[in-house]
Amino acid sequence: MVPSRSGRRSCEHGDVPEASAVSNRNLPNRSTNDRVVAGVCAGLARAVGVDPPVVRIAAIVLGITGTGALLYLIGWLILPPGITPEPEGADASEVRRGLGLGLIVLGVVLTQDALGLGFPPEVVWPVVVVGLGVGVVVWQVQPQLEATRTEAFRIAAGILVVGAGITALIAGNVSFEVIRSSLLATTLVLGGVALIVGPWMAVLMRERAEERRRRLHADARADMAAHLHDSVLQTFALIQRTDDPKMIAQLARQQERELRRRLYADSDDPAATTVKNAVDRVAGVVEDRFDVAVQTVVVGDVALDTTLEALMGAMGEAATNAAKWSGCDQVSVFAEVEDDGVRVFVRDTGAGFDPEAVAEDRLGLRESIIGRMERVGDTVDIRSSPGDGTEVELFAPLVGAVRRDTV
Amino acid sequence: MPTAPPRVVLVDDHQMFRSGVRSELADRVTVVAEADDIAEAVAVIEQWSPDVVLLDVHLPSGTGREVIEAIDAAGVDTRFLALSVSDAAEDVIDVVRAGARGYVTKSISSDDLVDAIIRVSEGDAVFSPRLAGFVLDAFAGGPPAAEVSEADDDLDALTKREKEVLRHLARGYTYKEIARQLTISVKTVETHASAVLRKLQLSNRNELSRWAAARRIW
Questions:
Q1: Going by CATH, does the domain composed of A269-397 fall within 3.30.565.10?
Q2: How far apart are CA A300 and CA B137, in angstroms?
Q3: How confident is the model over A3-12, as pLDDT tens digits?
């Protein structure tokens, strides 16, 4: 399958970026869009300025003598993949390319037979079949080939062909001598190629890994820089233009909370609904709305259910009350996930009030805290006396949820 | 305080913060020296052997833990109070386990900070609500000491009373308020807090190590 057809068309119309056009002319690369096997011939043809078929025929002729194949392999390994502008063979479908390949192989085999190079056909054919099979398998791991729906079919066909080749080799009853000498020759050639190309490949792979690592690092840095710019620098700019100390404190708190969330967040998912996240979120809302600091301490963590959501709502209302009425600038919220439930304390050291004396029509306490909690079976305990601060204790039983020890 | 104000060394890499703390504490504690990295801190502490070292958890060349360990090795008799903006449990627990006598965040009011310094200089443990929360978390799920059969485990578990004191600390109560709530003396609250700190520093088994492993702290 040839990728990015439209991209190629635009190349044809001279839309090629300057750099790639230059590199195409001067340095040989491996054509990824115009190829029969791996694009080596097309790439070389572009580099020297002739038509790809000329190079291909030369390669086949060389291939018959054996050196061509080796050169082609080396070319495959060392030439970087690139796009050649001329889409001459671009419309080659899989079938057409397969046919071309088959013809090349057939030509090579017939020619060496006709020249009488001396490999008996019962060796040549199995080797060709095995080679084709391996080729088809190797084809699969080429990264520039897109995964297609025919992939499974091709792998299966490859395995089938390899199997058939081996069977033919065994069934052909070839003499041990012949197999040994051809195996030896193959091993020598492959060993030679490995010696030449191996170290270079290792270096290339290391470089690629290193580059990948560097890019990840750079990405993380850029991400952080972008975040700092969007948040911290903007806040600093705002603070410099603000005279109201209350406003400054509020901006600073807001920014601090955001930065902390980013630096120490337990979960990658900010929307994760657990007690810890909910407490921090509610505390943040109260801090923003009123000029108080809300200190949160959460012990243990558990996912929210409807009962716990009611608890979190009541907690927010209790913290809001403390922020509004207590007159002190700090509210403590302590939430602990116990074995059988979640207990939350909202405390301030401010004015305090007499819980018995709260008018029936004060909805905040009656409805938002007590009513909401009791409807879902939670309990509320309010301890306060004038001049001695207030503490609201909320408890919600855990229903079927499992305590999570890891915060 | 009838005694002389405690002598303090400030270790923090931010010049602004050091001068801020120094001016706020000026008349109530004596800041004898400042340092902004580990090597300088160790040298200055050895030279002055102060009552209390106010120690930042994060220093440019390492962590506060390294300062504590170097001073321990040098055999200087001083007490450390960790002071940090960090909210990360591992930073806090790490420096407290190394031997800091307490932990407070940088948002603490100067009155509370002076109070904490004096308390640490007298040998008490100082828990910010957050530290109390971390410690509770660390020991969470462990059985109370009364139910532990093996004597070895006594060290690692908190007693019911200690947990109660910790919970109140986490809820934002002062030692004095806790004493009134639990109808015990302030001295007893301080004893409980110190016991918790000792257990935290000595404990290397069971709950704590499991907790630590779960968070990949050590």
A1: yes
A2: 6
A3: 444 433 333 4
